User: What shape does this take?
Amino acid sequence: MLHPLPHSPSYIDPIVSIETLTGGYNGESVLESVDLTISRGDFVGLVGPSGSGKTSLLKAILGTLDVYDGRVLVKGVDTSVRRPRVGYVPQLETIDWDFPVTVEEVVMMGCTMNFPLFPWATGAQRKSAAQMMENLGIYSLAKRHIRDLSGGQQQRIFLARALVGDQAILLLDEPTSGVDIKTRDDIMHLLHELNHQGITVIMTTHEINSVAAHLPRVVCLNGRIIADGPPSKVLTTEILTETYGGPMPVIHHNGMAIVVERPHRFGYHARKGEDQDSAGLEHQDIV
Amino acid sequence: MFEPFHYEFFVNGIVAAGLAGALTGLVGVYIVLRKMAYIGHGLSHAIFGGAVVSFVMSINFFLGASVWGFFSALLITLTARKRTIGADAAIGIVTTASFALGIAIISKYKTFTRSFDAALFGNVLGVSDGDLLALALVLSVTVFTVFVGYKLFLFTAFDSEVGRLYGVPTGWVDIMFSLILAATIVVSMQVLGVTLIAANVVIPPIIARMITNSFKRMILLSTIVGSINGIVGIYVSYYIDVASGATIVLVGSTLFVLALMYNTIRTRHHGIWSHFRKKPAITRIPFSSGRL
Assistant: This one.
């Protein structure tokens, strides 16, 4: 059960406007004619296969993607004119956990560009970092090495770094990738809490059933936007099949869309000599 | 014990070794944490080519080798950004070509009066006041740069890609450090020798890393270890009559082994105590169903 209060983005106040964006790297387009408007207070999940442009879309919002056509506005300012101040949380797998750095030092990195050529953090920056660590429940771990923390606590370090500069937008690249079920649950609760405090959350994920299905808004992406809306409307067999380019049967259970992961022929049912359709999937459930 | 200090060349040498050790130790922290250790090895060989060319063209050694080193560093940094080439291949191409050029010129002009043994392996006898001044100057500039840009260096070393997304000019930071490394190699060449500088860039930071988990303390410790390493190395080289660069690296290697032993004992000690801690009960479920 996620946050009990209803999610209420302000639809009259777009915080990110992506207008017919075509962009990529080294002259090769990854995104083609993408139109997307994200309102203040939105909580958006980007789903799609690997290489579909999910991370590139985050980079477009951060102003680091090569834009070939169209434009990206963050808080009304074109990202090609001024790079926006947006909180970004990378995939935990990309972090060098052996790097000699404490929790507090990582959180303070979020303030690096406030006074870049000043070796010490200012009093206000330290206070802000301490407050953020307190809010996220990691203040007591401030002097510990980052490797000494649990998966959920480690994710909180990078959330704190992303939010320490009073950021209104939080971008997360697969925040639940490679973590156990409880940590995933903790992270999703925390993100919903932050969202209900007014922070706009945009995250990529590969986990449709356990993550995307619980978000207020899902965008299916594969180089272009295939679908955009609430999970009940977007997570259908047709849309996901088009997004992933392969069969993605979806059943509905208690109002929730569930993508069925069908057992492979080389798995248990193959050994038993059963075919895939006898694995318990009722055709009439597929929507 | 204090006998060698009566000689001016030894005093010059020991001061130079202390400064060069501190400098390589300090620069090495960034190089090691950015996993650019190979660049130190490659760049020192590239600068050898520059040193030879500047000698042949009768250009001031520091000027010629520095300009050559800066361009090599820039070329490596820019080439490494090409996805299709990669940093290791870029270093391999640029530095070996430059080193080969130096060797080719030496073999062509056999009338050289100056020995390049000192440049290759280090020679404390050849340390002049100018060398000392250059070392002190580069060390001062490096300390100032690291101090002022501390936050930028930390973020870039920790996660360059994300640092860039946060607005950190990581490209400039990398170029800046490549240039500092080139300057470090040029001024340390007389003491350490181009073939052994790379070891001194790597060993002190690794020793420091084994002792501390803090970036700040690692910088401080690596600088101190590098300096002690240089001073002890020169002192020992005087008595055993071996090239200064080689002795410094051997002393550093010994310190590394000691630090490794300390680290292993500390970890094992921690492991021994864990045997006495109460272990949580494990729920064992037999695989009776046979269905996986």
